[in-house]
Amino acid sequence: MGLGDLLIRAGVSRTAYYSLVRKSSILPKSVEALSAALEVPSVRLLEESDRLRRVRKILHMVDRIVAEHPGASREDVLHTLLLLDQKPIERLRRGLLRGRRTRLH
Description:
The protein is mainly α. It has helices at 3-10, 14-22, 29-38, 42-68, 74-85, 88-104. The chain has six helices and no strands. Helix 4 (42-68) crosses helix 5.
């Protein structure tokens, strides 16, 4: 896909695009100020919005599953979907940590 096609598909004018390209940063000043105060890269704050979108998507899936299966436990469905959203290695690490804590008590 070429630039022109992309701009048409996104509904962005060439003027707006080239205005953004000329700027040193396209992030709002508030995002830059927050990231500076938190001493984290600006991109990190934007990544969190992706995490929120994933959580909303998971909650929507929980609602759909519970509606289709009224006997299902909302908490169990949510827990299962949250675990499935993690990378397998993260699920394994959590399980190992949980196993160590159980053994210690």
